[in-house]
Amino acid sequence: MNGTALMERAEAESTPGIVLTKTGQQAEVYAGAAPQIKSRPIYGFFKRLADFTLSLIASVVLIIPMALVALAIVLKDPGNPFYIQTRVGKNGKDLKILKFRTMRKGADKLENMLTSEQLEEYKREYKLDDDPRLIGYRKPGDGSKCFGAILRKMSIDELPQIIWNICIKGDMSLVGPRPILREELERYYTPEQQEALLSVKPGLTGYWQAYARNNAKYDTGER
């Protein structure tokens, strides 16, 4: 590392709201003390027992409604009704979460489906207020009322995680911080915040999701 790079690194490390990732790149983060991490194995055992029992009951109750949702997705946009995305799980391990597909096929090709303004918004917030990739989207404004938007608004797209991630695999909990993308983690969280976030299993629902949902944004510090 040359002298200029060393000076830039020292300046970044001393700047509030900036941390350096393991790759040495600057990451935008929001100030805030990370909660203290405590090891509670007995609590963890009973939490897992509660997660398994409740998710098993929910799986039995929801299996038929979920089958109908999967059928509706296929009829609206033929293809696999499920979608697997890689997020960050406990202890920083890759987490494969199972969701109902709310977007049309090819939605991962962002440059082909989003305007430059929408692409900038997605890269900043990792979501869109009016997402044209949603199933049933036809015109601006449909992002809050089309078929895919309804699945998201009612959190129906998250239901497969009850059976797969919580009941069967046990890599998620019913309640906990929502799992996020790795690049999202490195960009917006300090090392201390990352350590605290990754010390517990991610959950089906968490505080910021229940408190503000899509109204919580990184650029305001709420999320």
What does this structure look like?
This protein is an alpha+beta fold. The chain has one domain. Helix content is 43%, strand content 12%. The protein contains 9 helices and 6 strands; from the N terminus they run αββαββααααβααβα. The chain has a two-stranded antiparallel ribbon. Helix 2 runs antiparallel to helix 6. 22% of the residues are buried. Residues 1-27 have low confidence and may be disordered.
Quickly list its features.
single chain; 223 residues; alpha+beta; two-stranded antiparallel ribbon; two-stranded antiparallel sheet; 43% helix; globular; disordered N terminus
List the helices and strands and how they pair.
Blueprint: H1 3-13, E1 18-20, E2 26-28, H2 41-76, E3 82-88, E4 94-100, H3 110-113, H4 116-125, H5 147-153, H6 160-168, E5 173-175, H7 182-188, H8 191-197, E6 203-205, H9 207-211
Parallel strand pairs: 5-6
Antiparallel strand pairs: 1-2, 3-4
Total domain units: 1
First and last CA, distance: 35 Å
**Uncertain ranges:** 1-27
Largest sheet: 2 strands, antiparallel
Radius of gyration, CA atoms, in whole angstroms: 19 Å
Give average pLDDT, whole number. 84
Shape: globular
Give the helix level as a range of percent: 40-55%
Order of helices and strands: HEEHEEHHHHEHHEH
